[in-house]
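INFO worker-7 received task bundle
INFO bundle size: 2
INFO processing item 0
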Amino acid sequence: MDSEADHLALWCLLLPELRAAARRDGVLDRLDRDADRVKQGGPAKTALKKWGPVGPDGAPRSWADRPALGIAALPGRGRAPGVGAGEYGCPLDRCARVASRDEDGHPPRCAAFDASMRPK
């Protein structure tokens, strides 16, 4: 993963779970500030280094004042396949993320830019 578009796609994919964990750990305001920086054009690679689910040593990360199992796990494991037809892409054409409708048939959302993804 070398391009900013690849980093942005991963950031978008991880952001909902990162937000849930940050809310639980009491650091949502810090995550939201970094998410706003990315939304305004800041490097997603920097945000991923700071908020990614594992640290440089490969251990789960946590920013809580209390011990925790980690701020996030990789998404998509154990999830049922989505329903509906077609693929959706980045609403601003800034990353290569592709997603399908969710289990309830709703179109996917871009978490990085808080917008519905566009049909491809």
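INFO item 0 finished
INFO processing item 1
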Amino acid sequence: MNDTVDKLVIFLAKRDGIDKLVKTFQYVSKLVHWQVETTHLDVANRFKQWEVASGLSRKAFRTGRFLTGFNALRRNPGSTPTFKLLAVLANAGEMVYFFFDHFLWLSRIGTLDAKLARRMSFISAFGESFGYIFFIVSDFIIMKEGLEAERKLIALTEEDSKDAKEKIRKIRADRMMRMMAVAANIADLIIAVADIEPNPFCNHAVTLGISGLVSAWAGWYRNWPS
């Protein structure tokens, strides 16, 4: 019990940890609002206010977040020309997303002209989608390489080799983290598409709610202290 509490404290001390918790509030309240809006209007309005407040507070938490893209490229530009290109494209899209998200937030809270909100939302969502596509491609390539390396280790080493077991364990742990990243990125891509090109499927409250929770909980898993 104490270990779980300690991990929760560490998790919530991170900006990403707080973001995933508030994102959970945001999309749970969206689903509750959709569920009760025709039967309990007062309750639906309260949950709608919670959803909006959570979304705006997340944007405030992300102030300056676009700079993490520069840091990611500086620390890990990629091991091959292909991965360097994918990293540049992915992080460039994410930087556009977070940068214009600042203006979207300011227009939503009334500091900037509210008419800018739609344009800022489109640019931000377009950059987000662009970046996620290349993050997903990179993770799939790395997972494929990991599977090939795992098969070689299993085929060429003794089953009781401690070194081989440790390498396989690391490959599998990395693959799980990348699967969580892919799930989160696909879910966020659906949410971004709802802003870029509104359509009945992506813009449905259930689609957005489930996508938001998948993204939040996959991020929760990735950021939870080991």
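INFO item 1 finished
INFO post-check item 1: Residues 116-156 form the longest helix (41 residues).
INFO post-check item 1: The two ends are 15 Å apart (CA to CA).
INFO worker-7 idle
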